[in-house]
Amino acid sequence: MPFKLRIATADDVPDLVVLRAAVSQDMTSKFGKGPWSTRVTDKGLFFAMKRSTVYIARRRGEIVATLSLSTRKPWAIDTSYFSSCSQPLYLTGMEVAPARQRQGIGRMCIDEARRLAIEWPGGAIRLDAFDSTAGAGEFYRKCGFQEVGRTTYRTAPLIYFEMLL
To answer: Alpha carbon of 93 to those of 22, 36, 84, 134: distances in Å?
Structure first.
């Protein structure tokens, strides 16, 4: 069943903390400790809401997915790898509740992010994914993103992806 992402509000923050903690714990149990093993706080989410537009997807009242779109380049992105475009949007913080993964929710989030980016109007969606077994690189490829480069930021190997609009 398709859905529309909606902009998260301050009232959604407690549920977002629960979702992000569950995803972090699930990834740590599957792949070991890594950059995905972060502690999420209300303060961190409010900060994210100031720097980007945080979207949520709900099913039966429960937040099942989240992602952020922003015109602000994340610190780990090196723009020299990407195609030139007038208004790139950066997709960050995409997470699907562990119990809801592999049900098409992530793909629906990407479809919605693409729709939102076109309305923004944006010229491309850019993102990075961990270059490891914990990374979602194959997922992004299946969703139509093109790999444009690989790098290491601090100690995290990354793959850069873009979708031109």
So the answer is: 14, 10, 23, 14
What are 94-131's pLDDT values in tens digits? 999 999 999 999 999 999 999 999 999 999 999 999 99
Residue pLDDT, tens place only, 50-75: 999 999 999 989 999 999 999 999 98
The one-letter code for the residue type at 25 is Q
pTM: 0.94
C-alpha to C-alpha distance for 96 and 57, rounded to whole angstroms: 9
Domains of the chain: 6-164 (3.40.630.30)
How many other C-beta atoms can be found within 10 angstroms of the C-beta atom of residue 32?
12
Enumerate helices (H) and strands (E) in the chain, giving the number of each.
4, 7
- Coil vs helix vs strand at 93: strand
